[in-house]
Amino acid sequence: MKKFGILGGSFNPIHLGHLILAEQVKNNFDLDKIIFIPTTDNPLKNKLCDVNKYDRFTMTSLAVEDNDYFEVSDIEIKNTGYSYTINTIEELLIMDSSVKYYFICGADIIFYLERWKEFEKLFKYITFIAAYRTGYDTVKLQDEVTRLKEKYGADIIIFKTPLIDISSTQIRKRLKESKSVKYLIPQNVYSYITQKGLYKE
Question: What CA–CA distance (Å, rounded) separates 107 from 181?
């Protein structure tokens, strides 16, 4: 059975922290591929930063173009409404039911999974990889993972990631202030941002 990782996010913009996490998960869990899925436009977020889903998709594509094991999917940005994870996973399974999917997320997400649409069905479809950094309260996290496993049969793996202090918010702020973002984002992504004049407002 093929094993694909899924890394979703606004990628506004995608940065080296995303790429390092994806590479580590791929290697650690021997995955065949990592699929990056940019989310569709969020009206609330767009008020803060006017970069549309097509630009975010293009930047993500540029960031992964030199890695044969990474690809970008437009499965969510092609939708006009809000995309729920369960809908995305079901659509992916329709396209290829022979794949086992691993959903990569931040550890904090685990505490909110019961609020997700059709979360019990989601637990049957995918394995969650909960990534955390040094200093995180892993005792509380492990307790929650154990509870979800016992109550719903959820398959959740806790994964320690390197402490890489990079955020899209930080990058947007630096770009707006005309500060260097070297070694924070791929060079081709920076070239695209400059060419399109993104993140200036």
Answer: 26
3-class DSSP assignment, residue 120 = helix
Contact 166, 16 (CB under 8 A): yes
pLDDT tens, position by position, 14-46: 999 999 999 999 999 999 999 999 998 765 454
Would residue 196 count as lying in a domain?
no
Instruction: Tell me how many domains the chain contains.
Output: 1
Quote the domain boundaries for residue 113: 2-165
Radius of gyration of the chain (CA): 17
Cβ 59 vs Cβ 14: under 8 Å? yes
CA dihedral 10, 180, 19, 104 (to 10 degrees): -40
Element of type H or E holding 109: none
